[in-house]
Amino acid sequence: MIVDSVGEGAQTQPSAFEQMGGEAAVRALVDRFYDLMDLSLEFRGLRALHPSALDASRDKLFWFLCGWLGGPQHYVERFGHPMLRARHMPYQIGIAERDQWLRCMGQAMVELQVDPQLAHRLSESFFGTADWMRNRGN
Questions:
Q1: Considering the domain boundaries, does residue 137 fall inside one?
Q2: Residue 64 sits in which domain range?
């Protein structure tokens, strides 16, 4: 989860979820991410890891990101702890797939005009998570 540290007596900063614009903005981001992945040959390796119909994938990423960004814990309420690495082990995820995921999400954030500072912060966190989920060298 993206967490902002706040010292004693400091005002609470809005969560990344709130900065994004809530559920509607997270849904738009997820939908644009999957649209790009589905339509662009640049992301064909990433697309190949997904089922032919992307509806369930869209929902799961939306539910996960809502909670990860500091909003409602939709994913946890439905499935329990995300266990991201374990859930992704059946898929061959290397550097190429990681980088395609990051480029696709980055492009979606640019197209949806996510605040550049927030997009940068999210990209750094996405990289850490995506790299941790790799299960093959390249």
A1: no
A2: 18-132
Tell me whether residue 115 is in a domain.
yes
Q: At what angle do helices 116-132 and 95-111 cross, to 10 degrees?
A: 160
Percent of the chain with pLDDT over 70: 91
pLDDT, tens only, 119-137? 999 999 999 999 999 988 7
- The CATH number of whichever domain residue 121 belongs to comes to 1.10.490.10
- Nearest CA to 84 among 41, 46, 10, 135? 135
Do residues 104 and 43 lie in contact, with contact meaning Cβ atoms separated by under 8 Å?
Answer: yes
Q: Would you report the helix, strand and coil content of the chain in percent, each value rounded to 5?
A: 65, 0, 35
Contact 23, 74 (CB under 8 A): no
Q: How many distinct structural domains can be found in the chain?
A: 1
**Above 80 in pLDDT, residue 44?**
yes
Q: Is residue 52 helix, strand or coil?
A: coil
In a domain, 4, yes or no: no
pTM, two decimal places: 0.89
